């Protein structure tokens, strides 16, 4: 058993793809036409970090309730965690890519950490070795 995908609700597909692939360095695994449960057009868009088994399904908000969840999918908490081997290199690359960090890097018992925002406004931990 494994977690295959998790969803992040976004406003639009293409800017989200650009953020995850260009700013974070994820791979675009799939971008194909699909249908909603009631037959309307949508896209099935999956990105994931290089070599990772778990992917992120980028889902465009469909309706007011989903639009209201964009950027607040875990009630303002850090809900996503990106572990890297070299924290300083990843941090500098992400800053240079324009990613917004809401905390400065710090060292915790579990490693180096800094909180950043994704394109939707969700909080992520960038994690590296102590």
Keywords:
4-stranded mixed sheet; 3 helices; Glyas_Bleomycin-R_OHBP_Dase; 2,3-Dihydroxybiphenyl 1,2-Dioxygenase, domain 1; oxidoreductase; 130 residues; dioxygenase
What does this structure look like?
This protein is an alpha/beta fold and 130 residues long. It has a single domain (5-128), classed as 2,3-Dihydroxybiphenyl 1,2-Dioxygenase, domain 1, CATH 3.10.180. 21% of the residues lie in helices and 39% in strands. The protein contains three helices and eight strands; from the N terminus they run βαβββαβαβββ. The strands form two sheets. Strands 1-4-3-2 form a four-stranded mixed sheet. Strands 5-8-7-6 form a four-stranded mixed sheet, with helices on one face. The longest helix has 11 residues, at 13-23. It is globular and about 50 Å long. The model has no long low-confidence stretch (mean pLDDT 96).
């Amino acid at each position: 058993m494994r977690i295959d995908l998790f969803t992040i609700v976004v406003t639009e597909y293409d800017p989200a793809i650009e953020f995850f692939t260009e700013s974070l360095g994820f791979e675009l695994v799939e971008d194909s036409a699909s249908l909603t449960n009631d037959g309307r057009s949508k896209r099935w868009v999956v990105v994931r970090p290089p070599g990772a088994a778990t992917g992120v399904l980028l889902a465009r908000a469909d309706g007011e309730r989903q639009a209201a969840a964009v950027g607040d999918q875990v009630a303002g908490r850090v809900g996503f965690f990106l572990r890297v081997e070299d924290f300083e290199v990843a941090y500098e690359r992400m800053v240079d890519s324009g990613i917004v960090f809401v905390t400065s890097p710090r060292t915790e018992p579990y490693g180096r950490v800094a909180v950043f925002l994704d394109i939707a406004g969700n909080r992520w931990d960038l994690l590296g070795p102590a």
